[in-house]
Structures are given as structure tokens and as C-alpha cells.
Design goal:
Chain A contains 17 helices and 14 strands. With about 450 residues, chain A is an alpha+beta fold. In chain A, a hairpin with a 6-residue loop joins strand 7 and strand 8. In chain B, strands 2-3 form a two-stranded antiparallel sheet. Chain B is flat, with a radius of gyration of 23 Å. The two termini of chain B are about 30 Å apart. Classes of the chains: A alpha+beta (about 450), B alpha+beta (about 90), C alpha/beta (about 450). Chains A and C meet through strand 14 of A and helix 8 and helix 9 of C.
Amino acid sequence: MKIGLEIHLQLPTTSKLFCSCSTSATEPNEAICPTCLGFPGSRPRLNRKALEMGLMIAKRLECRIPDVIWFSRKTYFYPDLPKNFQITQYESPIGVDGKFLFDGKTIRILRVHLEEDPGKIKRVGRVGEELSLIDYNRSGVPLVEIVTAPDLSTPKEARDFTSSLITELRYLIGISDKDEQTVRVDANISVAEERVEVKNILGLRNLERALEFEFVRQSKMLRAGKKIPRETRRYDEERKVTLPAREKEFEEDYGYILEPDLGVFNVGEIAELMAIPETPLMRVERLSREYGIGLSEAKKIVFTSYALADLFEDLYSKYPTSKALSWILDQLAANWSTLEKKMTEDMRNSILTTIGSILSGSISENEGRKMLVSIIKGEEFVGASQELNNQEVTKIICSILNDHPEIISDYKTNKRAANFVIGQVMKVFKGRYSSDEVAKLVINEIERRLSR
Amino acid sequence: MDKQEVNEIARIARLALSDEEIEEFSSDLEDILSYFSVMDEAPTRDDFMLNPVMIENVMRDDEQYQVIDPEILRQSMKVFEGYVRGPRLS
Amino acid sequence: MSDKLSFEFLTRLNEKYKIFSQLINEEEFLKAEGRYHFHFSAKDNLCTIDFQSRAGSRILDGYTPPFDATAVRRLRISGGLLIGKTNMDEFGFGTFCTNSAYGVPRNPFDPDRSCGGSSGGAAATVALLDGHIALAVSTGGSISCPASFCGVIGITPTYGRVSRYGLIDYSNSLDKIGLICRSATDLRTYLPLISGPDSLDPTSCSQPILDLSSSRIKRIGIPKEAMEGISGEVEAAFRKAIEITEEQLSIKVEEVSMSSLRFALPAYYVLATSEASTNLARYCGMRFGIVKDDVNAHFNTFFSEVRSKFFGKEAKRRILLGTYCRRIGFRDRYYLKALSVRQIVKEEYLRIFQDFDLVVMPTMPFIAPRFSDIQKMKPLDMYKADFLTVPPNLVGMPHISLPCGYYHGIPIGFQLVAPHWEERRLLHFAECWESVFEYQFPEVKL
């Protein structure tokens, strides 16, 4: 089975693609103007932010970005299309020949381009006689269209791919949380040779269902010895089936011409200078590669939180052992969201120090675990006797000094270098000891090391 | 140009033509397109421009504002409960 | 000048010559009396808040835009009173202004003859009213042609010089807003007012500043291809004008060859109709203009009915042509080829301009034809009448038509073309020309 997707996502700009109407209206036909209504005499003007977002997406998908792009007119007649043509990109998409690494598989991205959305139609009346009621708030909203090669193999994979893509783009340009339900996909699926297109599928759940239905439908036909006609279908959400497309608006010769009103755009330069922030999957791939950990572990860390991934990198670079990994995954990842909310710089350092001590053997795993729990809970740690405590404290001091050898040399010229260590120890033990007591032990240890 | 072709073009352009019109346009288009074919003698260039003068990188900031009251725009269309009424879809 | 104008005079003028599709109403006119610096009109494809904007078409009947075209707004804020919308060929489709749904304007020099098109009403108004400034639009020669037929000055600025915001589109890469008036002084006064970048029209934002400082014209060229197929009277007037130019203005005139000109007309019509066929797709009985009440029809039938009923014949013809030229399988041969030709013609002009300051030719191949003769013309014949005005329009270079002779009292014009952005050369020539040639204006008999 081969599945290819054409994914349409709304870009989260404040204003529309070609006019300054808002993209977030609530009442019907509220965010409208002569341009997005196609009134005679109106004219389009390109939204810079939409172009930039499109370029970031093209870059993230490793597309080849041309030096110059322009827009085209795609002409067809439908009540939701105010000009009866859509301004889109035909011969000059903002990116071609890209790829997206997904679950170890490379999915080829054929093209990425920008286009304006038509309005939204509400069908009212009896089936077969429906009238249209149109809300033009959506008309002119910027869309990015991402077209894949038919490299996806199952409906679930198609869904997971799209979901991952959305997550990446959410990080990159900040698309909304609702996008999993509002993404519009045209899918083409072939079980044998002939390709069937299913158009206008709304949301990921419907995507998977539509593809599953098609797979079953096509397989049945093949088993019965029938040939699968190449056609365009649509997905009926309520009945959960695909049906032949009822209106012929898809079988048009669009008669593309260039759109002279906007001119051309030198995007090669803009794209070159653009820096893409590290998106979640990019980070997963890097962690796996740089630190030699498995993809699923890397995913678990990154998808819990970037802050956890930061912690992991800080820890693992010093202690590259599987134990370090499991401390992060088992002890911290689970309750990370609550933890992250109350995380402070000090707490973070304490956690690092404590785990470090455990890993370097300064303290036992048991003690370490208890200390961590109390750090996380923000409680006082109830420990053993004074004798043992001195040992414990010293162990912590040693751990800190091992991690920060520069303090020892700094101390030679500036006694106040010791304060950092004192402070850290105080925090680990939650002020159980007086700073004098701790200071004594710290200075002892530093001077012992200096005299060696 | 044959009438079937004129019919097809008229359909694409959403023009319902009478038989006389089809007859007339068929002959007109034949003449005119035949005249256009002199362009076959001109060389093809791939460095053509979109506009007669260079128009490049003209963009606007992503700010939202409205200059014309949407109520005025709604008044010029046939609106029902805020929605624009449109024809049947099937 | 403005105090000589009376409402009654305007009304009677319009009754006889059919220049306005809409005239200012008496109340507004009287209110404005004494409070404006000049009066102007706008071709009916320019959006105006206080008048309908129907572009000469029945399908836009009822469309009163909620905004002014920038060119209109700029003249208003400079003290201009908009006295009416002038008649035009539907959407700009025509050379004789006979495709106007709201009245066919009559030539002020001879009411049995055409005013030229598509800005026929605009040119006639200027010929009839002293001191009047008419906003007009050219796609393939719709300012030059009527200016020539009506014995007035018509300037078509460089493409992108005047903002097209508020212009009801014919062809976006070819439309230009310009002026029709009686004197070079008027050009100098009013051209700067409407020119200049406008953020509402991106294609107006790449222009260098309009520079009308003095210029020197030393050498002008006549493309020899332009002299083929010209009527005897036009040729005679043109040659005489060239003589005057050489002898009294001391400008050298030479013949040049521009072999690419023969491709210009077909390329123009292909591009113009291709773009027009998409621009006119929006007229479908929803949202503006003719808005049909009966929505209980399938949308394809609904659209087709309105369009077929309310578009004129020439509009349908051009929509069909344009749709054809962009179809799969024809697009390369027609639409894309036309874009190539534009490049070729532009380069040929640029080569000529290395040695010449201006290019000159008669504006039209004949004088304003009689309506009875126009009826006998076939569509292709009408298109071919544009062969002199189309080349500069195709490449977006500024050009001007100036009256240069009269045949039994009927005006003849000649057209000068300058490189992109060099409107000052045209103004300079116009000023010089006025000093050696006297314009005649018609006697207005009501």
C-alpha cells in the first residue's frame, strides 16, 4: 500500500495572507474587507510573517529553496471562493525536494507552498437540495501546503507522520493546539496500481479512518477480481465511509496564470540567513546521535520537556552511563510537569549535584534517592547521627569540588570562592546544619586539597 | 474552431451560450487564434518577467486592522443571520 | 473656469454627447460651488464612494464601492470636484467605446463618429469642457486612442507609476491609470498628484520618484513598421507634424526598424484576455453588482445564467479567448509565449532608446470612424486597429498622444513613447509642441 499526503495547515499569523483582516474572528463575516471578499478594485498585499513562516517550514523539511518565488492564480468557480480564483503557488513553490525523518524512515517531501484559504460553507437544507451559507472569515487566511511522496505505508503511519509533523511545526512557528483536528488533508492511496484520491479530510482521526476504509474497500475489489478506477472521493465523517466526490469542482482545468499584483520575492537570501531553532525531533535525533542513546529513550526525554533534556545533557556529558539515563528517565521524567513548575536554579543544581554524587559513588543509591525525593518535595532530609552526617557532608563537598575544580585554584587568591560550595551544601541538606559548621568542613577539604 | 470546443471553453468559463452565439464565437475565435499564431515565429525566452517593470519584495507587516466597517460590506451582500447566502451545492 | 460651469450646461451636454454614465446630482454640485480648485471626472472603472462604479458593464449595476480609488482620493484632497463617471467600453474591452452599457459617447467634433475607446467618455469630456481633467485607464491604448480621436492630450504613465488600488481590473500586468487634458500645463500640475507609491498597491511601490525636471529631446525615431496600413489622411497629417518637429523644434527624426512589433499585438491580446478571463470570474451574481435573489439553483447554473445574461458580447468573446489561451496544452504556445514576446519587445525598445530620446508614430491608423462603419467591422479588424498603441502598452513604457492635425476638422493624433519612468521627456515634448502647433477644440452646440 502506498500513501501520499497533501497537508494543509493554517499559519498562525495575526492577519490574513493578503489583507489586514484578523485571522481569529468569532462572529460570521466579521473579519472581512474588500480584498478577502474579492470586491472589484481591491488588491492583495503579501503578509511578510506568513512568508517567513513558510520559509522556516521549507527549511526544516530540508527543501531546496529557490532564489525567487512568485504567486499564481488557480481559477475555478465555487461559492466559497470570492474571486473565483485562488492565489496560490504553482510553478514556484517556496520549497521542493525535501525530506522528513520519521521513526527512522525518510519520507520525501515533494513540495511546500503558500496559498490562501477559501471561505467556509455551511450546508443547510435537505440532502440533494442543500443551499450554501458562507462565512468569509476564513477567506484569505494563510495556508501552508505540504505534499509528500507516496512513501507512507499504512493508515496509522500516515496519521503518526502527520501528527509528528504538526508537533514539529508547533514548535517551529507556534501553530495552535487545535491543529490535530483542523488540519485538512488530501490523501492518495493505492493498494494495487491505481491511485485513488480522497479529498478534504478534516483532522487526524478522520485521516486514519478514511485511509483504513479505503484500504479495505480497495482490497475487497481486488479480491473480487475488479479493477480499481482512478477517481476522486471524499470522506463522510458521520457514516465513516469514503464516497465518490459529489461535486465536480475537483475536475477542473485550472488555467494557471502568474499573479502580477504581488510581484516577485527574493527568498533565497532570506532563507539563507534564517536560523531554525532545534525542534523536538531534531533534538531527539541529535541526542541519540551525540550521546549514543536509543531513539525511544531520547523521545521520552525530549517529549517530556526541553528542560528535562537540558538536565539530561548537563548530567550525561559528565556521567555518560546508562545509570545516569535511568536516573533521568525513572526518577524524574514521570512527575516532571509538577517538578518543572516549582523548579528553581538552586533546586536544579541540587538535583544535579545529588545525582552526580550518587553516580560518582560519594553517596549510596539509597541515600541519594531519599535526598532527591526530599529535594523534590522541598522537605528537610532526616538523616543519621552527627558522625555519619559529617561523612555525608564531606562526601557532598568532595563531589562538588570534583565537579568544579576551578574553585580550589580560585580559593588561592580569593577565599570567597568557598562560598559557592558552602551554599550548595546548605541547600542539599536543607539548612539542617549551621553555615558555620558547613563552612568549617568545606574549608577543611579545600585546604586539604591545596596542601597535597 | 469546432463547436464542441467552444462549448467546453464556455463551460469552463461558466457562460451559457445560445446556438447563435456558439456559431458566431466559433468563427471569431478561429480568426483571432489564427492571427495569434504569428507568435510561433518568435523565440521562446525563459527569462520573462511577471510585470513590465521589476516589482520585488513588496510586503506588509503582520498587523491586524480594519478600515471599512464590515457591516457596510455585509449590507451589499445577501446575508442571512450573518452568513452570505449562496446557491445550491448539489 | 469653474464658475463658468453650470449644472444645466453639464446636463444638456451629457444628453447630447452621452459622456457620463453618472453625473453629479444638482444638490452636490451646488453645495460644492466655489469650494473646489478644479473639476475632474473618473472613468467608470475607478472606484468612487459617491457614485456607482460599473466599468461600463451591466453585471456591476448597483455596485457602489465602500472606498475611493487612490487616484480619485488624491485628486479630491488636492481640491478637485468629481463631477461624474465617464462612459467606457465594458471593462475596457473595445477601441471605439461602442461596448458601453450605459451610453455610447459621441465625438464632440462630429456626433456621428466614435470617441475612441475604451476611455471614450473621458476624452470627449475634456474636448467639451475647458479646464477639465479626466482620469482614464489604458490597457492596450485606451487613453491614447480616444485622446487622438477627440483632439486632446492623453498621457499613459509608466506601468506602476499610478496606484491601481480601486481600479476595476481588466489586466493586472497591463492596466495603467493616466490623464486626459488640454494642455501640458495641466499635465505638469496633475500628473504628480496622482503618481507615487501607495502601500495599498504593491505594484506602485517599486517606482523611482517622479521627476519632471527639464529634459532635452534631440533625436526621435519612427518605426517603419508603424507606417504600414495607415490611412492617407493620417499619414499626411503625421508627416506634416514631423516636418514641424524637425524644422521648428530642431529635433532630428529618423526611421528605425523594430521587427518585433509584429508580435506585439497578438502577445498583448493573449496576455490581456488571459488575465481578464480570471479577473472577470468573480462576477457571478453573489456579493456585489448584480446579486441574484433566487439561490435555489445549482451553483454552476446560477453562475452561468447571471454571467450570460449580464456580460456583453465582447466581454464573452474575450473571456472565451482568455480561457482558451491558458488551458493545458495551449498555455505554452499562447500565454507563456506572450510573456516571452513582451520581454523581446521591451529589449528592442531599450536598444532603440540607446540612440533615440523618444519613439514616435501616428496614434491610430485612421481618424475617428463613423458608427455605421464600426458596425461593419469584424472583431479581428477592431483588434488590429490597436497596432500602434499596443506596443508601448505591452511593455509598460510611458507614452503620450498629442493632437497633430485635422482632417476636415476631425482630429488626428501622434504618439510619443519614452523609456520607463521618463515621463519628463513626454512633458517636455508636449510643451515644445504646444509652442508650434495650435490645438483646436470643438464648438459646443447644444
